[in-house]
Specification:
Chain lengths: 465, 447
């Protein structure tokens, strides 16, 4: 395949393109689903495809195929050139590329137990322990228990006209439990999952009680929780919601493609204060084991640790080869593509707020009333207006400096810049246990988020009471 | 680039997968062979960002042994890879455990063809034409007001040839065409930023009316200037067409019998009971010609049926796959998907007698939601939604656009408080989207 990619790039050069890259992506994944203790479904998917991107007269063209003969790949290149030519004249801002030093590297995933070497039967036996822990913690109130397992082997080879040839491997695993507890007509969900860039050892080292048991305890405890109030409240985010907030509200605004297009509320604020001085935000693709980690991005640029906001001041954006050229910056290794059928776009990896110095007890203790939100589920942002939404699966009211009644799922909304300025406490307790998938422009990318508990002076809580 | 494979070739490959599965010991098997071509033209900063085309061929095979499921997909349509996928699926099905509720896969059934799902005109549309359509809409947006910036958008065309075959003789052509275009624009005025989006979609070119999508996005954007905070309280809430569509389709999604049988849905045990006001009638109709989610059969090959879900406020029906229908000893409605679950198709609410404008004019003070995700939590039925775009109503008129505002309530509580559904509506292929008046809901604002 390496030779085929080289051949395509040489042919692209001969065609006189300003830039071209060819990516081969192989993605081999398996999944297991246990429902109510029964192994009901096992699945496997194999994808192998090549995507070719060209820059011709300022216009980008892209084509991909999973027919992998030399002839088909030549057709694929011709199609990409044809696409660029069809777009010529309709491009408002001609495409550019930062001409970085070429890289040549082969990165092998270093895991202790490759998931392929573990028999399916053994995986199933392990998953049953998660089911049993859920049942044991469910207090006889579980209507449904679903245990899921997934692993994936991802290999990406990137070859471009700059001279880069990078071959990068990533292995990811995930195990999760979702339960439904029911009592007197009330139903509640509990969910917990663990995952990241690791081999099967991560599954073996995960205590089933910490996933299955925790999911069940969460669902059962919510059966007696009250509905959330509606209105403006001081809010403390659990690290899982801090992770959602920093990813949705801040991170997407710092992606330089959105900044360039004018769709970021943070555009034009480089070097200026964008948050309370308690806030330092980093994006780091090098943290071993986290879901958003990788060695090279989909443009063959090395990932790294990037400080985006330091003590409240915006220090930099996340860049691809193109946005780096547009902003006169260095690429940050943030040009990621979901697969060979997608073009690289600017993405986050593992994004956190750095821990502070206070304790959660101290922060809660000084409050009159407020809400602590826990178990981040999902979020979204309108980057151009800076309005964000984060969904918490559960929470607790705060009354007279103490954690009080538990509350059910609720969403919280705010304006990004105001919320960042209103962060008035950051704890030393710090967690990064939120592996997930980020969606942008129709592409999913593995990411992880987290941080400390943070307190925001006031946010809108969309409760039902 | 090479053309997509014909449905005849795809049917042969799907049949090959089923035969290979049977040889390895599958009791039942089905296979979906697909060959697709997708073109898209994303937008960046008032122009086309790129033009993309991708081709993908694959076969996905499901095998059943004792009701346990193994599934695998091939990386391409090469015979050896397809056979390997079938063998792998059987191997996994044998590792799964027996399911006493599994009886069979669908048998061939008589049905008519649903018209308008594959359009030769769309299949033959060039990439240049797609670019031209998007460029025209960027211009139409910017012609509305010179402050308008088009910051995001995409025009996409997908042409798929597909064949579904199973071991009981089902042979179905699931080919289709889909065309869509959306565009997001924004405007800055001093420190304020306003934005909005508009879209169109269709299965056939004759149903596609992209002309003016850009201009409408721009007009909606300008209307969002001057957004203000509102107070917290209980107010009448009007859901505009795009917001009501999220509520009604998600109610249909929660009425799926897979989640009902597993006690995961808040609609479990509620059949025959009132879950909404008498104004609320919802039908799932997957047989609408040219509908975005239409098809003569579901993803397993069962014949689709029109289903009454809610009639005059009473929950009257659940959506079924063959598996869930046999388990419940009820009629199969043909809503099975390939993951083994149950999914809604086109969800159609019944219309009322007042025009949307009259409904708004009857509200003294309240909230109009142009867009927001009013999907309830599957288990609890609770809704907690951000108003992505909306207006505050005073004395029957839009007073100002709102920002940072949320709406909360239980789905049944909100459905029960529906006082009116408009007689006029927004229509997209297979979707009827009226305006809906909820007499009262919890509104949270930041004033």
């Amino acid at each position: 395949m390496r030779d085929m990619l080289h051949r395509i790039i040489e042919r692209a050069k001969a065609n006189g393109v300003a830039f071209a890259d060819a990516r081969y992506v192989e993605n081999d994944s398996t999944g297991i689903r246990l429902q109510d203790g029964r192994t009901e479904k096992l699945s496997q998917s194999i994808q192998k495809a090549v995507g070719v991107r060209v820059l011709v007269e300022g216009a980008w063209g892209f084509a991909s195929t999973n027919r992998l003969s030399n002839r088909e790949l030549e057709d694929c290149l011709d199609s990409a050139v044809g696409m660029a030519k069809a777009a010529e004249g309709k491009v408002a801002e001609p495409g550019v590329v930062e001409l970085v030093e070429p890289r040549s590297d082969v990165v092998k995933a270093t895991v202790r137990r490759h998931p392929r070497e573990v028999p399916m039967e053994k995986k199933v036996r392990r998953l049953l322990l998660f089911h049993k822990e859920a049942e044991a913690a469910g207090d006889g109130k579980l209507a449904n228990v679903l245990v899921t397992y997934a692993d994936s082997y991802f290999r990406e080879m990137v070859c471009n006209t700059i001279g880069t040839m990078v071959d990068d491997e990533q292995i990811r695993v995930m195990v999760g439990t979702t339960v439904t507890a029911a009592e007197r007509g009330v139903r509640q969900r509990g969910h917990k999952h663990v995952g990241g860039t690791a081999g099967y050892e991560m599954i073996e080292e995960t205590e089933p009680a910490d996933v299955g048991g925790e999911a069940a305890r969460s669902a059962v405890s919510l059966l007696s929780a009250r509905r959330a109030p509606s209105g403006r409240f001081p809010v403390i985010f659990h690290p899982s919601i801090t992770g959602l907030f920093v990813h949705e509200a801040v991170g997407h605004n710092i992606e330089a493609d959105l900044v360039f297009s004018g769709a970021s509320i943070i555009a034009g604020r480089l070097g200026k204060a964008v948050a309370s001085d308690l806030v330092t935000i980093v994006d780091d693709s090098t943290v071993r084991g986290l879901n958003g980690s990788y060695a090279y991005d989909s443009e063959g640029v090395r990932g790294g640790k990037r400080v985006l906001v330091e003590n409240g001041t915006l220090k930099g954006y996340l860049h691809s080869l193109e946005t780096a050229a547009r902003f006169g910056a260095k690429p940050t290794g943030s040009g990621r593509a979901q697969d060979a059928h997608s073009m690289p776009i600017v993405r986050m990896s593992n994004t956190f707020i750095e821990p502070g110095e206070r304790s959660l007890d101290e922060v809660v203790g000084e409050m009159g009333e407020g809400i602590l939100l826990d178990e981040g589920e999902w979020g979204y942002v309108m980057t151009e207006r800076g309005q964000f939404t984060c969904r918490a699966h559960r929470g607790q009211l705060i009354k007279d400096g103490k954690l009080a009644d538990p509350i059910r799922e609720v969403s919280v909304s705010g304006m990004t810049l105001q919320a960042l300025e209103d962060i008035d406490a950051v704890t030393r307790e710090f967690e990064t246990d939120m592996p997930g998938t980020c969606g942008k422009q129709g592409q999913g990318a593995p990411v992880q988020g987290g941080g400390p508990y943070i307190r925001v002076k006031e946010l809108v809580v969309g409760g039902q009471e | 680039m090479s053309e997509s494979h014909s449905t005849k070739v795809l049917e042969q490959m799907a049949a090959l997968a089923c035969e290979a599965a049977a040889k390895c010991g599958a009791e039942f098997a089905d296979a979906l062979a697909s060959s697709s071509r997708t073109i898209s033209a994303p937008v960046e900063k008032n122009g086309i960002k790129a033009l993309r085309e991708h081709h993908r061929d694959y076969v996905s095979v499901r095998c059943f042994v004792g009701g346990g499921i193994g599934s695998a997909s091939s990386p391409n349509l090469e015979k050896e890879e397809v056979r390997k996928a079938a063998e792998s699926a059987v191997r996994m099905a044998k590792m799964a455990e027996r399911d006493p509720d599994f009886v069979t896969l669908p048998s061939p059934g008589d049905h008519s063809k649903v018209a308008g799902l594959f359009d030769e005109k769309l299949a033959g549309m060039s990439a240049a034409k797609l670019v031209e359509m998007m460029a025209d809409e960027i211009d139409s947006a910017r012609n509305v007001d010179d402050r308008i910036q088009v910051v995001e958008g995409d025009a996409g065309l997908s042409v798929r040839s597909a064949a579904l075959v199973n071991s009981l003789g089902v042979r179905e052509d699931l080919s289709g065409t889909w065309l869509s275009l959306y565009l997001m624009s924004m405007v800055r005025k001093d420190d304020e930023v306003a934005s909005a989006y508009e879209f169109d979609c269709a299965r056939r070119l004759a149903d596609f009316k992209s002309e003016g999508v850009g201009a409408e996005a721009a007009r909606k954007t300008i209307r969002q200037l001057g957004a203000a905070n509102v107070g917290t309280g209980r107010y009448p809430v009007i859901l505009g067409p795009l917001a009501s569509e999220t509520l009604f389709t998600s109610i249909a999604a929660c009425a799926n019998s897979e989640d009902v049988q597993k006690q995961r849905s808040f609609l479990a045990g509620k059949r025959g009971k009132r879950i909404g006001s008498k104004q609320v009638t919802l039908v799932d109709d997957g047989l609408i010609p040219g509908g975005m989610s239409s098809g003569a059969v579901d993803a397993e090959g069962s014949v689709r049926k029109r289903v009454d879900i809610v009639r005059d406020g009473v929950l009257v029906g659940y959506l079924h796959s063959l598996y869930t229908s046999l388990k419940a000893k009820e009629e199969n409605t043909g809503h099975g998907d390939r993951s083994g679950g149950v999914s809604p198709t086109n969800v159609i609410p019944s219309l009322g007698i007042s025009a949307a404008k009259e409904i708004v004019s009857g509200v003294k003070e309240g909230l109009y939601v142009e867009h927001g995700e009013f999907a309830p939590d599957l288990r609890t039925g609770e809704i907690s939604a951000t108003v992505d775009w909306g207006f505050w109503i005073k004395n029957g008129e839009f007073a100002f656009p709102v920002k940072n505002t949320m709406v909360g309530g239980g789905a049944i509580e909100l459905l029960t408080r529906i006082d009116a559904i408009s007689s006029d509506y927004r229509e997209e292929p297979g979707a009827i989207m009226p305006t809906v008046l909820i007499s009262e809901a919890a509104v949270a604002g930041s004033k």
